[in-house]
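Example 3.2
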Amino acid sequence: MTQKLFYENLYMTEFDATLIETEEKDGKTHILLDRTAFYPGGGGQPCDTGFLNGHSVEAAYEKNGDIFHVVDGVFSDAEIHGSIDWTRRFELMQMHLGQHILSAIFVRDYELNTIALRLEQNSLYIDLDGYANAEKIACAEFSANEAIYQNIPVEVLFPDMDEIRRNSKRAIPETDEPIRIIKIGDLDYTPCCGLQNKATGEVGLVKVLRVEKHKTGTRIHFLCGRPALRWINSICVNAMHIMNELNCSESELAERVLKLRNDVQQLKEHQKSLLSRLATSEASELLAKASHFGEIAVVKHIMQDTTQDEMKQIYAILTEQKGVVALLGGKTTAGVFLMFGCNKGEKRIDVREAFKNAIAMIGGKGGGGASYAQGVGQDDTQLSKAINAAADIIISALSDI
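Structure, written as tokens:
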């Protein structure tokens, strides 16, 4: 069984060990040592990473009491010097202890239990077994930070089952092995195999990011320690940049941003109205100039520096009624766009042959049915010829009606 140095000295970052065995799996070497400071993961906390004799340790895991270290490539050194990624370990401990604190606050103040959690170096959430409103969450965050400021010692205990049953407010695992308890003053008394800091002050802070309903309970996303500080710094930098651009103070920022959003929405609606009028006017002009073959009007038109949305708007107006076939080509930033069709109820027109010929001429791809086809190509030099050729095919077909 591997000697677990991380339990003996939580703050050990380097160690020496002897190789016991190695195993090659899928191009990786799984290394067993007689002792290690690499935490293999557990209690919701991810494993450590780091180095063994300069080889990068990608993961560590426990199997039957032995801890294996996974490195890339071949590894055969007998005497080992290991070092863990202390920044990662410390931040994971901050996140884990912060989670214990916040979960304990929800149990103590609101009788809401944590039934699931997901912990990573820069991401953490807990699922509560009931609903917590915004006021409860804000109060819990405040109380969690108060517990951090008090710098409460964190104790690791191995009490007997009777004592655990008397003190624990969490589920107790069914096992014959000694149960490791994390005790945070009078706040928390929880079975856990993970690693936490020696005192709550090392957590630094707890910051709730967002809250969402999850099944019948509440999912709370939050960060602790350095990851929380990085997130807050990022928010502050972005906020200060926006304040400088808007020439406003932090107290005015939210109001100014909301006003800008409303102004943009109004401008979009106004633009949409103007584009609709322009599309209606242009469609009317195109219909007036259209060639007629019996009861069918053939509209062929090339739009310069346009968008697919603009083309679709004009196309929709042209094909509102039966008796019109629209052959539209447009030069967009995405390439040359073709849009051929007629009213869905029009049974006298089939644009498929005309479209197939035209899309081939511009070196494009697309498809559709008898009443509508679209596609995009890149050769805009052939666009005019493609539209004219398509019109010839449609006109030829109409002459047979």
